[in-house]
Amino acid sequence: MKKMTQLLALAATVLMTAYASAQAPAYMKYEVNGKPVSFNVDEVNSYNSLEGDGVDEKKHTSNHFYVQTLVETEFKLSIAINTAPRTLPVAGKIPYVEIILPVDGALPSVYLSIDRYLPDDKMSFYSSKSMNPGNFQITKVEGDWVEGTFDLVMPNSYEENDNLTITNGSFRFKIEKEME
């Protein structure tokens, strides 16, 4: 009887842990030049779209995860995970690319960008490039939820020798239905 009680307690613990993990909300956190930045479920959003014309740009599905427009912060990050048309991301390391995915571009791949809001209503834009140093890894795909980690040196899109160092990045978001 004691063994049965222990087995039932263990099974209940496993089920509760799995349920709690499945119910964890979306989030995004990272450090920019050593400064911690984090966003909770109310500050992030996601969408999924079929992109590319197949002539100048490779046709692909892009799962976007981003900090919402009205959130006030200095560093606003966006992630676009690119996969073959109408396929979901899978766990593993994937390379960084630029915003336009050329016909011979890698799939899966990922594009990251940061809008930096400066004093006096000025902005700077930073984004990943093909062959960008750093790592992006999807660590878990469960149902329609994706989790992962990232780090990279992100160059300014318009000014040379202006980079942001992004470290300790992690995220969790829900894959939404494809937009029409």
What does this protein look like?
The chain is mainly beta and 180 residues long. The protein has one domain. The protein is 12% helix and 48% strand. It has 1 helix and 11 strands; from the N terminus they run αβββββββββββ. The strands form 2 sheets. Strands 2-1-11-10-9-6 form a 6-stranded antiparallel beta sheet, with no helix packed on it. A 5-stranded antiparallel beta sheet has the order 3-4-5-7-8, with no helix packed on it. The longest helix has 22 residues. It is globular, with a radius of gyration of 19 Å. The termini are far apart. About 9% of the residues have low confidence.
What's a quick, concise take on this entry?
By secondary structure, the protein is mainly β.
